[in-house]
Amino acid sequence: MITIKDKTFVPFIPADAIQDRIQELAKQINQEYADKQPLIVVVLNGAFLFAADLVKHLTIPCEITFIRVASYQATESSGQVKEILGLSESLEGRDLIVVEDIVDTGLTLRQVCAQLREKAPASLSIATLLFKPTALKEALDLRYVGFEIENRFVLGYGLDYDGLGRNTQDVFVLSEE
Ligand code: 5GP
Ligand code: MG
Ligand code: MG
Questions:
Q1: Distance 79 CA to ligand 3 centre (A)
Q2: What is the pTM of this model?
Q3: Residues involved in catalysis
C-alpha cells in the first residue's frame, strides 16, 4: 500500500506479471517486425519504464525516440492535448511503434497518431501497457496491449498521481475505501 498526498493506492499488477507480459509483447514485435527496422516512439513521461523494459527484449534492429504530450489533470481526463514535442527525425517511410503507458479515453493517442501520420510513415502501430476498454471514446487499433483493466485510476511503473509515484515496480490502483 502507498499513500500519495490525500490518496491511498493498493497493489494491482505485480512486477513479475508486468515483466512476463512485456516479454510476450516483445516476442510478438520481434516476429511481426522481423524484416523491418522500426522507429519506437515513446510517449513521455508515463511510458518511460514500460518502453525501457520492452526494448531490452527486442532483438530486431530499431531506433528509439521520445515525444512528450500532456492531456491529463489529476485523476480526471481533461481531453486536451498539447502539441507533440521533441520529434526531430524524419518519419517518412518509417515503421512506427508508438509506446504508451495507458489508453483511457484514447483522445491523446488519436491526436498523437493523427499528427504522426501527417509525416508520412510507412506504418504505425501502438503498444500500450494498460488499456481501459470501458473508457475508450475513440476507435483505435491497439496492436500490442499489456493488460486490459477496469476503469479505475492506477499508478506506478511510470504512471503518476500529480507527478508522484512513477518510480515503482508494481502497478497500484486507487483504493475504493
Ligand atoms: P486518454 O487521452 O487516453 O484519456 O489518457 C491518456 C493519458 O492519461 C495517459 O497517457 C496517462 O498519462 C493518463 N491516464 C489515463 N488513465 C490514467 C490512470 O488510470 N492513471 C494515471 N496515472 N494516468 C492515467
Ligand atoms: Mg501516456
Ligand atoms: Mg499523468
A1: 13
A2: 0.93
A3: 104
